[in-house]
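Why this split exists: single-chain examples teach little about how molecules sit against one another. For that reason, every record in the complexes split bundles all components of an assembly together and asks for one structure covering all of them. Below is a record exactly as it appears in the raw files.
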Amino acid sequence: MPDIYLDNNATTKVDRAVVDAMIPYFTEYFGNPSSIHRFADGVAKAIKKARGQVQELLGAEHDSEIIFTSCGTESDSTAILSAIKCQPNRKEIITTAVEHPAILNLVDNLEKEGYTIHRMPVDKCGRLNLESYKKLLSDQVAIVSVMWANNETGTIFPVVEMAEMAHEAGVMFHTDAVQAVGKIPMMLQDTKIDMLSLSGHKLHAPKGIGVLYLRRGTRFRPLLRGGHQERGRRAGTENTASIVGLGVACELAMQHMEFENNQVKAMRDRLERGITEQIPHSFVTGDMNNRLPNTTDIAFEYIEGEAILMLLNKAGIAASSGSACTSGSLEPSHVMRAMDIPYTAAHGTIRFSFSRYNSMHEVDEVLKVMPDIVAALRKLSPYWDSVNNCPVADPEQAFQPTYA
Amino acid sequence: MWDYSDKVKDHFFNPKNAGAVAEANAIGEVGSISCGDALRLTLKVNEDTEVIEDAGFQTFGCGSAIASSSVLTEIIKGMTLDEALKVTNQDIAAELDGLPPEKMHCSVMGREALQAAVANYRGEEWKDDHEEGALVCKCFAIDAVMIEEMVWANKLRTVEDVTNYTKAGGGCAACHEDIEAILEKVLKERGETFDPNAAPVAKPEAAKAEKKPMTNLQRIKKIEEVLTALRPQLMADGGDVELVEVIGNTAYVNMTGACNGCQMAAMTIAGIQQRLMEVLGEFIKVVPASEMSKLVNIEGAGHA
């Protein structure tokens, strides 16, 4: 049975070179980087090197703009809570309806505390309306937080342009870039982005390490106070080995940037084309022309995502779904709902996300099994006419359950 | 991925009775496309005997929804309509060796489809009487709608109240923030403010009754009642159960027939224990009578 991993937006395999670089920091150079003895020798230097490697990948102007955190979520929380603490008179926050829960649940909570939250809607392709965005910007807004790329569809938001607009209005701008960093090139020093979150495990570094990029001069209040680590901006003993690993992962991402945007993209495109050509009533969600190179999110109408995943898993293929059932909630993914994807399709969305470890051969394997999986589940579906192998005429009308 | 039992996986990967039954004379349609679950159950009922001769399902839903539908059709085939109506969602879940709390609604959907189909056969109108909300308490599978209704109906004020009335929050306690949020919301609508230190309201009657310890005689009688109710089901599978002794909260039973010594015995005992605890409202341990001697000795030693 094949062993095909196409869930790289969820997390990635740690690169062998990353693991190798980390090991000595568990076993030999395990000293506290603040200590003055031979066990700590070189540890602070290793952290400095990693900081430089992250700086390089982000295109940041200074390495002191890189603050190591524990994960993307911590970076997101730090950024938003810092902005509101610095500007207690500003009681509004602008974000989008399709952010990651790391942002959405945080602002939901701030709403209860009295903040006004503007969750910008998206169109059917997952795009924002910049005209309405402009109207929301005012001196009441503490921070704008907009993701660089969407985790489900891969749709890229024009964050560079939006940061310029915020800057002109005198509003801080944060971007959750955990899906974008390492997949598309960026040069933060040429932008007006004030803060950016990244997560190590999305780019072949381990879980439990993240970064908050903080532009020099941006007003800041730490989330964790304590020791002097990270220049007092994030207290807590450094996660040395993971920091070193993230540095290596960033360097590897730089080296593979072209590969990601050519070969990885070619795999994605082949899978996408193959599936939508072979399988009727399937379509790609999101902004086809403006997406991460590694992501495709395909809706299979009249069937449910978790069931598809279980059959894929049986065939040795790992992917993920925006269906309600995979999360334990009753609603399908908020991203699908925001794009107004009908329920019959939203529950059947499958995200395939590639990495540089995938191959064209794997794409062909998926293309071999996918049509049968979809056909098998449609045979069970009350919305599918098995005799004529098509959706029942007017599916929404034909099946009218008691409490629809 | 969910921690599905092998039985759930088996019914999902090899569904039984998939598709619509030809010449069905009882059709039940339930579910909601917005929740991602919809089930059409078709039955062929013998008009003289009311025996379900054939059953088929069509399901739009996740792995456990398909498995619940499949196992439901297996359970009810050969039953009369009246027998089938006694099938509960717990029966469906038990037949699948359990479902994750988030997935219990799949078994509820199965039972409702069955009720709807029987109503359809009898020319009655079936009305769904429950509304489902987001799952709050994962330990006891209690959703937000249920909690909100209980808070309204019983004028509950604290998390402790909610636990007393619904069980929600009585396990790992991780959902207390969510319960407080519901209390805050309802109390606000009622024109009051939520005070975490408010005195709890009176406990529900059922909980009060639970507090008063049962006499041993009452307990034995209750246990007998439950076992008697369970026996037909066991006998249908070629087995039987007999109550041998009750010591404290431990019930010693003899499993006979097909149940005895079979691999399913342990599971059946767990099922009986679950049912006993539900009915008696207290912790009951069910142990095979074969283990009585050593346990009695331990008990005896404890009393000495």
